[in-house]
Amino acid sequence: MAKLKEKILQALKNNRQLEIALNEISKSQENLLKNHSNPVFNQKDKIKILKKFTDLQNIAKSMQRYNKLNENNYDQDAQEEKDNLETTVLKGGISYNKYIWHAENSENTCDVCKSLDGTEFDFYDEVPERPHPNCKCTVEIVEETSSNDDSGTMTEENYNTNKIPPKNPTSQPTSKSPQPNPAPKNPSQPQRWIKPCNGPIVGQYGEQRSTHVHNGIDIAVPVGTPIKAVADGTVYYAGANDPKGYGQYVIITHKINGKIVTSEYGHLSSWNVHAGEQIKQGQIIAKSGNTGHSQGPHLHITIREGIYKGTPVNPNKYFDY
Fold first, then answer.
1. In the chain, is it the N or the C terminus that has fewer CB atoms within a 10 Å radius of its CB?
2. What is the DSSP letter of 12?
3. By three-state DSSP, how is residue 142 classified?
4. Residue 168: enclosing H or E segment and its boundaries?
5. Cα 290 to chain centroid, rounded
6. Are 9 and 154 in contact (CB under 8 A)?
7. CB 187 within 8 Å of CB 274
8. pTM of this prediction?
9. What's the CA gap between 313 and 304, in Å, rounded?
10. How many alpha carbons lie under 13 Å from residue 180 in its C-beta half-sphere?
């Protein structure tokens, strides 16, 4: 839910984006409620989360009023509602804060918790629960200032001038002159990962299914095919009874440029790793199967940016298939 503020303000400039912004607000509210009930937060921060949930609720109601007035050609009332909305959003109705995960500094701290230490989450994203019952990790809200931000954040000044500053402003050369060698393309991109197994792709990322959009890829392989870890990482979970229908599955967290990326391997027949275990790229972690909600032997793999329940992305961003 990064850039929620910008999405709302852009929607007020373009009425066709109002519905999109309202959907983003609704998703953000769901995440805030989940975070409010997450024991990883202390009571003081839970109060802050609930306050921002209420702020979003009021903003959504105001946007709906503005939309209704605008549709019915109550131009003066609509403009007044819009002005009030813009003031509310620009003056702090949307949080600039973020969450930071802190692992307990103890010899008993597991590798999963250590791998999460220092991980940052957007304020309107869902924060995962503690990975195991004995975990003593905490997540705190970090206050950030907004008024003097030059990182691309929408402020009152650049909103009123209908301009969002670039994230990395650079001066343009006024004449031709020798240019330095170009920087490598996407220097922050991780080294390419490997495929977990070889086989035909029978389910594509983003494919529309009867009840959902497919969030990974399906690779058709016989039951018992060795499954490899796509990259170095730490086992977050290995087991069965997944509510999403993965059957027996393994989750591995990977740290890429200080951020957590997660790989999930589903419908397995067996696994040979355990939570907290350090894994090397190419290591055999499991064997493929046909468990869970599966219509034939295959491996389902999902790549998420963030920990378990993070945002699914096209696996092709990290490995070729």
1. C
2. H
3. strand
4. none
5. 29
6. yes
7. no
8. 0.54
9. 6
10. 3
Is the pLDDT score of 164 beyond 50?
A: no
Q: Measure the CA–CA gap between 233 and 250, rounded to whole angstroms.
A: 12
What's the chain's Rg over C-alpha atoms?
23
> Which residue, 132, 22, 113, 173, is CA-closest to 4?
22
Most confident of 45-54, 84-93, 278-287: 278-287
Quick one: which H or E segment has residue 48?
helix 43-71
Using the structure block, give the residue that is written with the tokens 């009930």. 37
CA atoms within 13 A on the CB side of 260: 27
Burial track 76-110 (b if 16+ CB lie within 10 A, e otherwise) = eebeebbeebbebbbeebbbebbbebbbbeeeebb
CB 299 within 8 A of CB 291: no
Domain ranges of the chain: 4-160, 201-317
Q: At what angle do helices 4-13 and 18-36 cross, to 10 degrees?
A: 160
Tell me the C-alpha distance between 123 and 99, whole Å.
Answer: 6
CATH topology of domain 201-317: Glucose Permease (Domain IIA) (2.70.70)
Residues whose CB is less than 8 angstroms from the CB of residue 113 and which lie 6 or more positions away in sequence, other chains included: 103, 104, 131, 135, 137
- Give the model confidence (pLDDT) of 14-53 as tens digits: 888 888 888 888 888 888 898 888 888 999 999 888 888 8
Q: What is the mean pLDDT of residues 223-247?
A: 87
Residue for token digits 């009123």? 160
Take residue 117 and report the two structure tokens written for it.
Answer: 């230490």
Answer for the pair 310, 260: CB distance below 8 angstroms, yes or no.
yes
SS3 202: strand
Residue 113: phi, psi to the nearest 5?
-65, -40
User: Cα–Cα distance between 301 and 315 in angstroms, integer?
Assistant: 8
